[in-house]
Amino acid sequence: MSRLSCLFLIFWIGCLALIYEIYSMRALFMFYVENTKAASIAISAFLGGLAFSSIFFGKLGNNRDDKGKITLIFWMQLASVFYGYFVLKNFEIIPHSIDYILSQYESGLLHDSVRFALIWLFLFMPAFFFGGAFPLVNSIYMSQKQNASAETGTVYFWDTFGAIIGALVAGFVLLPHLGLSQTILVAVTLNVLICAYLPTWRWIILLLPVMIIMHFVDIPQINTGKNRVMSVVSTNGEVVKRHSEKRATYVEPQYSVDEAMDLYLVGDELFSEESSYGRVSVRRLGDLTSLYINYRMMCAEDMKLSKSEKLLGSVTANNINGGARVLNIGLGCGVTARALLSSPNVDFLDVAEINKSVFNANKEVLHSGKDSFLTDPRLRIHLKDGADHLRQTSILYDAIVIDIEEATVLHSAPFFTKEYFELSKTKMKEDGVFAFWSFNVSNHPEFAKIMYNTAKAVWPHVYLRFEKSMFLMIFASNKPLEMGEMDVVEKLMTKRVMDQDINLINTIDKPVIEEYYDVNAIFQFPEQYRDPFVRYPDKN
């Protein structure tokens, strides 16, 4: 292999390594909320993969000639093809596999250690299949030159330069425009081309059956098969078991929060607590008591003012039979939970709340009395990510009600996708009811239409309800549902949404709603404000 061929090869291997790694991180973080620990795991796994691979393949190729080293590189690339297509392409099996293994352990240090180890291994493997290429290519390149330090630097430069290009292409071109499924196919195809480029012609015949097998093989999902309730809070509010709270990625705001933002926090402060997902506060202005996360007003305690959340719970309860078990993801001000518990049809209510500070605000301020709904014996509150609860539970619910933060909040965004709608459906009985609440974007009816399309791709019967055009509710089921009477505003809003000529579906692979969902516009914040837990639409 010529010197130029060596540099060409190491450039593309470095480029592919970063494409695989960024893809793996993106796929994994759609299921596990990003945080400092997660970023540390990702970086250490990538560097660990490069280091162990370099040692392993460096020693393996030590006594081989150039042809033998090229053969090793070929098998490394072929292994990447298999791992990319059978594992990374079917990225949803990763959290299911991890949940299945973790179901054998109780929560605690061992449970968290196993979880981190499995995530680390998932991110380690792509780097391992590429890292060993550097010492092998460098050795081939060096066999033709005498100046060791300078020539090693040349190979390292092209390897690193390829990695830089791969990172930029993956982050700014492939993933935003092609999505996860097409990005991994591009990477796998490049792997195959590298295999074809290597002068190991006797192995090229393997590529054809490999591609044929990959085209027809599908990977089944793994069911956790066991219900392991964690982070349960008893009806008197005492924590029985506590799951370690995951932290969302904290990105320094692009603009400092100036004094003008404090104008959005109205009334007297009754509660304030820093959480892993922003500052949670409760404020009272006259008779209005509201819960805030950072500067975003999430809800009001008054049932009369929170008509949409009340409607969400009451319509759901009216469409299920007596003795029902219901899951409510997102506690908020407790309005949806109270509406569900007010129905005689609900015998058991699970509430999954990711933010412990929201629960504390309810317990200490919003619903601190003896007659609080928190003391209802039918209620169990799980201080954990609702996504984890959905994946891990073996319960089949009569209804699942999702009432969470906005569509572009980092830890809420996955719930707005077809994949999580499908996951919810697998956790419901055949005639179960799915209900979903969101802030509506009245000047972008495309958002509501996309959410309707997404639900319609999963259930045959889908209905829209609106409250003052500001709040969107989606109800879906395998059976027809009774929605009750709609006022004129609702009818007009529904017609406006359904008239939109848009067939897009929001998926983890391609989150298309972000183009139509601007948190600053919803809350009328200054355009330059940046909430550190929110993704903002690209207006370029």
Please tag this protein with its features.
2 domains; four-stranded antiparallel β-sheet; eight-stranded mixed β-sheet; Rossmann fold; single chain; 540 residues
Order of helices and strands: HHHHHHHHHEEEEEHEHEHEHEHEHEEHH
CATH architecture group name of the largest domain: 3-Layer(aba) Sandwich
| Structure annotation, total helices | 17
Structural class: alpha/beta
Q: Describe the strand arrangement of the main beta sheet, using strand numbers.
A: 1-8-7-6-9-10-12-11
Fraction of residues in H or I helices: 40-55%
> Can you tell me the CATH topology of the largest domain?
Rossmann fold
Uncertain runs are 218-257
Give the termini separation: 45 Å
CATH homology group of the largest domain:
Vaccinia Virus protein VP39
| Beta strand % | 5-15%
Whole-number total of structural domains: 2
Q: Class of the largest domain, according to the CATH hierarchy?
A: Alpha Beta
Q: How many strands in all?
A: 12
Largest sheet: 8 strands, mixed
What does this structure look like?
With 540 residues, the protein is an alpha/beta fold. It is 47% helix and 15% strand. It is built from 17 helices and twelve strands. An eight-stranded mixed β-sheet has the order 1-8-7-6-9-10-12-11, with helices on both faces. A four-stranded antiparallel β-sheet has the order 2-3-4-5, with helices on one face. The two termini are 45 Å apart.
